[in-house]
UniProtKB/TrEMBL annotation:
SMART domains: PGAM. Pfam families: His_Phos_1. Belongs to the phosphoglycerate mutase family. Coiled coil: none annotated. Residues 253-288 are annotated as: Disordered. InterPro entries: His_Pase_superF_clade-1, His_PPase_superfam, PGM_Phosphatase. May play a role in carbohydrates metabolism. CDD domains: HP_PGM_like. One of its GO terms (cellular component) is cytoplasm. Signal peptide: none annotated. It comes from the Eukaryota. This is Histidine phosphatase.
Length: 288
């Protein structure tokens, strides 16, 4: 069964369910999909969503609610770039914001001239910005982030405490040096290993096409080729793909919350029948 030819088993408490989401269409995608060199355009610095991108966000939001997925997610992790933040709060936010002292908005109204209403954090899962799941770093202006303090003003209820550990400014992006594919993959694996330090069991991750593609290429080699293809294929804008990651190395030490040990009462008559039968055979052998 472990050859990848059929189903296999693994303890539930050593698994996490992750819902991988690529951001909706950004302004850089429109020309960049036609001509890769367009990604060098400085006008696309920290590119935000297009009107079509916001429609994609609205459609995905309807899906996560109608499918029941919204109620299952314990945490949303987001790359701290404008297009991913807009996607994350639009899909997983709490809906229209009404001015209340006890509720902070996830996104302020008309953020970066988006024309969108404010989004509430009420009943939303926590949203945490994490640098490790950013897009391919360097050279392309669209992949350079703003200062964390700017994002905190635009997205008040998003947790940027991890994104600002390095610096308020973007010290990871270099104008003349772009990460190699191998470096992106290594960063992605480091990110997945970090997930095991989290207590949450069902996590949505809003990130980028390049990050997902190069990270996921490392997985599925022990599966059927069609499964490997399903894992590794490129993500469309605003595509959501649900997967399970397992801890084969015992790195996660959380005990199961659903396992029950089952206690065997003392006394031979109360032993399970197969064990009691073995005991009887042993006794008969010793008496003969």
């Amino acid at each position: 069964m472990d050859s990848g030819a059929g189903p296999s088993l693994f303890p539930l408490h050593r698994c996490k369910t992750i819902h991988l989401v690529r951001h909706a269409q950004g302004i850089h995608n429109v020309e960049g999909d036609k001509n890769y060199k367009a990604y060098m355009n400085p006008d696309y610095f920290d590119a935000q969503l297009t009107p079509l991108g916001w429609q994609q966000v609205d459609n995905l939001r309807k899906h996560v609610h109608s499918s029941g997925l919204y109620k299952k997610i314990d945490l949303v992790i987001v790359s701290p770039l404008l297009r991913t933040l807009q996607t994350a709060v639009g899909v997983f936010g709490g809906g229209g914001y009404t001015d209340r002292l006890d509720v902070v908005p996830l996104m302020v109204a008309n953020a970066v001239d988006s024309g969108r209403a404010a989004i509430s954090s009420l009943d939303s899962p926590p949203i945490l910005a994490v640098e490790h799941c950013r897009e391919h770093l360097g050279v392309h202006p669209c992949d350079r982030r703003r200062n964390v303090s700017d994002y905190q003003f635009l997205f008040p209820a998003v947790d940027f405490s991890l994104a600002s550990i390095e610096s308020d400014e973007d010290v990871l992006w270099k104008a003349t040096v772009r990460e190699t594919k191998e470096e992106v993959a290594a960063r992605g694996l480091k990110f997945l290993n970090w997930l095991w330090t989290r207590q949450e069991k069902e996590i949505a991750i809003v990130t980028h096409s390049g990050f997902l593609f190069h990270t996921l290429k490392a997985f599925g080699n022990d599966c059927h080729p069609l499964v490997k293809k399903e894992i590794c294929k490129h993500f469309a804008n605003c595509e959501l793909r649900s997967m399970v990651i397992v801890d084969k190395s015992m790195a996660g030490s959380d005990p199961s919350t659903t396992n029950y040990p089952g206690k065997i009462p003392s006394g031979r008559d109360l032993l399970p029948s197969d064990i009691a039968n073995d005991k009887n055979l042993e006794n008969e052998s010793s008496n003969s």
